[in-house]
């Protein structure tokens, strides 16, 4: 899907994350917010991100991309000629409903109206729109230039073609779309994150393992595989007959562990106290910002120089022996 | 903990995985199995691994390390002078009990008796040993030269000093030990893996997402953080007041998602069928071996050239603008 102009409505954390993605793809992007000062801040942040991306070789000409970003004083000015509208107002059903109805009413006839949500049911927020067929939910991860995943959720009335075109556009923006066909609480990625974090809290609360050691269980084994293979691919490569063989061998264990997990248990006060104390021993609060910059650099490095994209190849027998 | 000689008892998949770790640390390692042919195969596999490690700059002199590996025809010959015994016989309570009692009876007075288990309760398998104070469980991940994590589980009678010395030895071997203080079904890493895989199966079975898209939810967001940060560190960096602030903001959502997870549900036939079909479309069974070699190369690459250890640093403002 090739478009020339997009509109971002709402320029808070989520809205401003979208801006550099459109601009680096060569798409003119108009940014509108009920607070004009927020638009200025958002555009400045997007420009800084584009310069970071250029420094890592991920954008050719940041200045040219920055020129494509325009503030829009009025909603009508933002929507004029926009082929894709990315709504990014606060995550409240009433707010979303009101804004989406307004956007759907004012947008160009062929435009797609996309809502940035991380938890709401598309059926609920699109209830009041006149043209549900062009409305869709896209859930980015923050910040999106470091986190390629976008969860795409059609509502009950969304055209299949809008799902296809939105997914194609997300790819043009450099993102990786996945389609969520049925609303579930937390969507998918946050459910998987909750599965891990809830069990982690439960294990610490039960005195099974220390918080620092729990983190090592991820980084020193599971996480280094999950950086480039999902859980199904991991299982598929771990048995002779692929995932069918893996299931024959381990399915019962997985079901039994599943039944024993503490995921639905509340985050105990004691567990939380232990995790907080452990983390503050590792990094004091005033060191967190530096640590965040470290994290973002490593994520950028993984995009600029992906694992497996460095020309490595199997060694020949001769090389092995030399 | 500096030792000169170790014994590996049992040379199947797990036993043979331990051999190169001891040898590359400069420790003489004697390998015994009731099947002498298995010992020969294991030593050849260990030698190949050491040459691979050398090719990636992770072992200086593979040949010197290989010289430290000796087959032992008798159990007594393996145990003589061994300061650390790594039992790696099949994972059955009766087998483990019998072999561990025998090893404990014949080992040097000061030796540590370590059992490779992935699921058994240390209290059960050490029930019959005369000296429970020196007995401990160590759970490696396969293959251990690519997966640094080792779960260390003391039994009810294990000396704290043995926990400390075993953990120190694991570090000398180049591994990353974590201590599991209380037996839980699946230990820790496999519980976290089950939390993810069980929920993944449940989501596919419920028609929420396709298997290929589910894998992308991990590799394109969660997994790339988990390659270098555990779930607690991830949460800690994601809120202004660290994990305390994160909890104040998201705890309720995590508990609610936890209560909604499908982790205890059986792996539905339909879900499994979908996952198998999706994987076979991506890689036919006959392509799996090549894919495994790809996986192992990427894991090796992550060890040889870890993320964040490539001299990257924050860009200066000037560089950002240049």
Structural commentary:
With 322 residues, chain A is α/β, with parallel strands linked by helices. The first copy, chain A, has 2 domains: 5-179, 3-Layer(aba) Sandwich (Rossmann fold), CATH 3.40.50.720; 189-282, N-(1-d-carboxylethyl)-l-norvaline Dehydrogenase, domain 2 (Orthogonal Bundle). Chain A is 52% helix and 12% strand. Chain A is built from 14 helices and 8 strands. Chain A has helices spanning 13-24, 36-55, 62-67, 75-79, 93-106, 122-125, 160-172, 189-205, 211-226, 231-237, 242-260, 269-282, 288-304, 317-321; strands at residues 5-9, 28-32, 69-71, 84-87, 112-116, 135-140, 149-154, 176-179. In chain A, strands 3-2-1-4-5-6-7-8 form an 8-stranded mixed sheet, with helices on both faces. In chain A, helix 1 crosses helix 2 (36-55) and helix 8 (189-205) packs across helix 12 (269-282). The longest helix of chain A is centred in the N-terminal third of the chain and has 20 residues, at 36-55. The termini of chain A are far apart. Chains A and B meet through helix 2, strand 8, helix 8, helix 9 and helix 10 of A and helix 2, strand 8, helix 8, helix 9 and helix 10 of B. Chains A, B: It is an enzyme of class 1 (oxidoreductase). Chains A, B: Belongs to the 3-hydroxyacyl-CoA dehydrogenase family. Chains A, B: Residues 6-181 form the 3-hydroxyacyl-CoA dehydrogenase NAD binding domain. Chains A, B: It comes from Sphingosinicella rhizophila. Chains A, B: This is 3-hydroxyacyl-CoA dehydrogenase.
């Amino acid at each position: 899907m090739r478009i020339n102009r997009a509109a971002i409505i709402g320029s808070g954390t989520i809205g401003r994350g979208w801006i550099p993605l459109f601009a680096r793809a060569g798409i003119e992007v108009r940014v509108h917010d009920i607070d004009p000062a927020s638009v200025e801040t958002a555009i400045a942040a997007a420009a800084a991100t584009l310069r970071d991306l250029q420094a890592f070789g991920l954008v050719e000409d940041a200045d040219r991309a920055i020129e494509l970003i325009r503030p829009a004083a009025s909603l009508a000015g933002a929507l004029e000629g926009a082929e894709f509208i990315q709504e990014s107002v606060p995550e409240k059903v009433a707010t979303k409903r009101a804004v989406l109805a307004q956007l759907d009413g004012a947008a160009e006839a062929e435009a797609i109206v996309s809502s940035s949500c991380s938890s709401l049911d598309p059926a609920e927020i699109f209830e009041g729109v006149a043209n549900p067929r062009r409305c869709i939910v896209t859930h980015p991860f923050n910040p999106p230039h470091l986190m390629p995943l976008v969860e795409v959720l059609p509502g009950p009335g969304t055209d299949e073609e809008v799902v296809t075109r939105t997914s194609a556009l997300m790819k043009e923006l450099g993102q990786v779309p996945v389609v969520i066909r049925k609303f579930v609480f937390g969507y998918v990625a946050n459910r998987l994150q909750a599965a891990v974090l809830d069990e982690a809290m439960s294990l610490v609360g039960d005195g099974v393992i220390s918080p620092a050691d729990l983190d090592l269980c991820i980084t020193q084994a599971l996480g280094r595989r999950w950086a480039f293979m999902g859980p199904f691919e991991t299982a598929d490569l771990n048995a002779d007959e692929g995932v069918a063989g893996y299931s024959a061998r381990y399915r019962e264990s997985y079901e039994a562990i599943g039944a024993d997990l503490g995921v639905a248990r509340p985050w105990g006060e004691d567990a939380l106290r232990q995790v907080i104390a452990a983390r503050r021993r590792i990094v004091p609060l005033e060191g967190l910002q530096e640590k965040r910059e470290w994290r973002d650099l490593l994520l950028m490095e993984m995009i600029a120089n992906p694992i497996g994209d460095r020309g490595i190849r199997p060694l020949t027998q001769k090389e092995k022996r030399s």
